[in-house]
Amino acid sequence: MSLVVVGSIGLDTISTPSGSVVDAVGGSAVYASVSASYFTSVNLIGVVGIDYPDSAIDLLRRHGINLEGLEIAEGKTFRWKGEYHDLNKAETLSTELNVFADFIPKLPQNCISCHSLLLANIHPSLQLRVLEETRVYHHVACDTMNFWINGCPDDLAQVIGRVHIVFMNEDEVKAFTGKHNIFSAAQSVLDMGPTLIVVKRGEYGSVALTRDYILFAPAYPVREVKDPTGAGDTFAGAFMAWLEGHAELSREVVSQALRYASVMAALNVSDFSVMGILDLQRESIENHKERLCRMTI
Amino acid sequence: MSLVVVGSIGLDTISTPSGSVVDAVGGSAVYASVSASYFTSVNLIGVVGIDYPDSAIDLLRRHGINLEGLEIAEGKTFRWKGEYHDLNKAETLSTELNVFADFIPKLPQNCISCHSLLLANIHPSLQLRVLEETRVYHHVACDTMNFWINGCPDDLAQVIGRVHIVFMNEDEVKAFTGKHNIFSAAQSVLDMGPTLIVVKRGEYGSVALTRDYILFAPAYPVREVKDPTGAGDTFAGAFMAWLEGHAELSREVVSQALRYASVMAALNVSDFSVMGILDLQRESIENHKERLCRMTI
């Protein structure tokens, strides 16, 4: 079994009411890969510059992540600088694409056919390109963001028409479909082809919708959210990793995936950058998951 | 078994994106009583004017609600006029207290001792007065609103110190406690004495918190919210009515109460005034409740 994750890799400078970090490990593919690494073997596809710190590479290796698809290009690593005032919405202070500007995902031989593929948040045209180059036996999922929904909705629609699973925030799915009711909006996405849409609602949890069922999952409670960056990527990584061993998206399988995803996202936001999801014991994750089970009606 | 409900009774003129109603049946005690009537016998305590329509009295009687505590006073019935733009927040256009201005709850003999008491949304000093006059064998609960939290927080604190169960909206519990994290805010309320607090989060469901457990309940899905008025009262009414037969607030009992409360609140918002919760078959409520069970992870 293996999960291929394609997405951004960057160095984040983040300020929140709880503190700040400079040039910390970040990027959609990194959050998703580290999160997924507790459940399956992960292949990370992305690009960094020659300034990407060895410590970050070590961190990824330590989590057993296969880095054959990690390209190291001449130039500087993608950088994002953001600030949170109310923890619900990041304000972007600056974005330096650097080597990410010319990124074309190159799939190593061992990733051309894989069990599952997570197209984490990158330009939909790159997501499409990867879709065309891979043969996936089980599940293909995409995540996205408002920037692409507003900037290239047609490309995004093409991606959505070709994946099984879509991850979107509540405001994103409403904006993309033009529908205000979350259930109608989700139905519009399912009508485009996917089997499952997972609508992420931040501290209010998530809702998974298929043609046959709806599943609500609470967010695992967090007393202090220190840094919400990467919560959605962490969620998607764990979700997809759990699905790895399950060909069918049954209610039970998706329930379990939502639980693990909710736990990992909560651990992630409880500390800056990826620090909340580093070097975890699987037993600790299981304990959190059991606790979450006892918190649902 | 019997549940005593004390609160406002009014005639509401409501405008929402789905339409409008004029002088429709409303008031916290009415929503709560009709909702509760499907699960237990209900005694309604409140005041109306001589203009209160016979059809509204019939409606209450038809639901088996005991009206010995319904005072008919000289003057006009309490009226509220409100408008919803985004369905999440009512804008009050006018409030005419009328006979409600001088309301002093008078408890008929059969209500002086009761199984359960729901102090629906009225002035905390009236809630206190009722508390002093009744002997409750099982559970006493209070609901409230921002108006009292801002206007007479000390009276409200006294009420909270004497009840077992508190219902509050998320923004209300944060405002009342001055804490931004819902779990810290709920803990502050529990520290004042209650055994249980139920934080209502509108379309995001609800969270019940005790010293021993947390329970998350989703909102039962609604495709079109026509009129959110009374959702919280309907929720509290069903919740308290279900608790009637259960002396202990165990996880299982509270889970079931949350399910019924969630279903009744959803039925309520799917139509104007109390129309969504009139003349229901218990079997239909059970079916919705079973569906909700299958929607939680």
How does this structure look, described?
Chain A is of the alpha/beta class. Chain A has a single domain (3-294), classed as 3-Layer(aba) Sandwich (UDP-N-acetylmuramoyl-L-alanine:D-glutamate ligase). Chain A has eleven helices and 15 strands. In chain A, the strands form three sheets. Chain A has a nine-stranded mixed beta sheet with strand order 5-4-1-9-11-12-13-14-15, sandwiched between helices. In chain A, strands 3-2-6-7 form a four-stranded mixed beta sheet. In chain A, a hairpin with a 5-residue loop joins strand 6 and strand 7. In chain A, helix 1 packs across helix 9 (231-243). The longest helix of chain A is centred in the C-terminal third of the chain and has 19 residues, at 251-269. The radius of gyration of chain A is 17 Å and the shape is globular. The mean pLDDT of chain A is 95. Chain A binds chain B through residues 181-184, 201, 203-205, 207, 213-218, 221, 223-224, 251, 255-256, 258-259, 293-297, and chain B through 181-184, 201, 203-205, 207, 213-218, 221, 223-224, 251, 255-256, 258-259, 293-297.
